Amino acid sequence: MAWLCALVACLNAVCWSIVSPPFQVTDEPDHYAYVKQLADTGTLPNPEEGSLATEEAEVLTALRHSYVRFAPQHHTISSTAEQRNFRAAIASLTDSTGSSHAGVAASQPPLYYAIEAVPYLLVGGSPLDRLQAMRLFSSLFAGLTAFFAYLFLREAIRSSPWVWSIGGLAVAVTPSLGMMSGAVNPDAMLFAVAAAAFYLLARGFRRGLDARLAVALGTTIAIGFATKLNFVGLVPGLLLGVAVLGIRAARVSGRSAYRTVLIAACIGLSPVLVATVVGALSAPSGVLATKVQGSLLDKVNYAWQLYLPRIPGMPNDFPGLFTARQIWFNGYVGLYGWLDTRFPTWVYNFALLPAAAIAALCVAAIVQARQALRGRIGELAVYAAMMLGLLILIAAACYSTFPRRAASFAEPRYLMPLLPLLGAIMALAARGAGRRWGPAVGCLLVILFLGHDLFSQMLVVGRYYG
Is the pLDDT of residue 378 over 80? Predict the structure, then answer.
């Protein structure tokens, strides 16, 4: 079943790679430029200066990229004549000099881009041929995300095997997972690494920490550091999880258990040590490296209002905006392309109904299992710490541009490393309906998610080709 979930997620991402026009997914031109620079020259792009490769710049111009981006009333090329003119415009392009400018991608670690350099180099032809090959390769990460999400549920909710497939399939057809994994973006790999980390922690809490699991956890953390800087937000929770598992193991095997903790920590933090030594990274994020003005209380108030309703007495950092609804909920329901492709307003209002029903069923399942959950406080605290760390990282990045921009990095895709927890919510919602009605409710949830995904793809098709 885990492999089936992986297949569904992979095929869904492939569909998204086809319906999303070239370079019309957030920051994809910059990520493509990073791969091009690495593949063509063997060097990293310069975060401070440089220029976009002539080849990519010409392709973007021929695609009318700047004309279409952020302008839903404008469509991309679609007619036979437009296609013919585009092919003629790029027919003579033979640029292999790299792209020293990679925009927002330039400060990111190189692992994802090095992996994507493989399909880039193997596939010849135009930049669009290479882009599609890279997108298809990136789709594999969606499969890994759903695969590990299913395994996480298998370890975390062992008493109800029938709900594992519900949560796993819900993750597999999540539109944001398909869109980002069907594009050239390191978020795709970050989602997979984060899902693997959730699974390994859940496995440790069920079966105990041994040397093999410590190596696996440490390796996963190291890969996360080398994938995308956003992974930093998950690290405090991951290290807390390793520590809690080590303490539990020490009760059985004594002080030797702490050696496994040390193994995991050393392997996991090795990329940070190497990056510090060679000067590749000077801070967890280029955004956070800048000194941010404001008191600690101002920052806490801002972070609170970014996710939760404002408490009376707080300064209003988001006047006229209910962030939980308008940024996070509506953004999850549908915000595609360059965040310029939306559903009609009634869709977001209607989506509140199934969301409320899912929340109620999930709460019912938690109440029913409250006795069992009391014995898993440590495990739940670790997952909460991972979520909190990611939320704080996003809030800190947003605050760095405040008040010039209210929430510049508040994008729902940045929460997608928590997809295994979304799968757990769906599984608990089905379980909350009871053993008699639970399977039927679970089927409805999967159909709901599949319908959401299909209509989201049709929305993108209509936006760019309608």
Answer: yes
